[in-house]
Amino acid sequence: MKLTKFEVARIIGARSLQIADGAYSTIDIEELSSLKIAFEEFKRGKIPLKPIRER
Q1: Which UniProt keywords apply (predicted)?
Q2: What local confidence, expressed as pLDDT, does residue 14 receive?
Q3: pLDDT of 52
């Protein structure tokens, strides 16, 4: 399933907030920024979130 740019932004933003609130990262990275960690998780396909589309 191809994601729109809006879905990508929403998923990365939601995951970044989770990481900032103390959730564990699914990748090993030395970054301190939760946004950069979430983006790298997304690039690697390791982000544990999927969009639900309304019909």
Answers
A1: Cytoplasm, DNA-directed RNA polymerase, Nucleotidyltransferase, Transcription, Transferase
A2: 95
A3: 86
How many helices (DSSP H) and strands (DSSP E) are in the chain?
A: 2, 0
49 — phi, psi (to 5°)?
A: -130, 145
SS (H, E, C) 36-54: HHHHHHHHHCCCCCCCCCC
Single-letter residue type at 28: D
Which range of residues forms the domain containing residue 17? Answer: 5-44
In a domain, 51, yes or no: no
Taking CA atoms, 12 is separated from 6, 40, 43, 47, 55, in Å, by 10, 9, 10, 8, 23
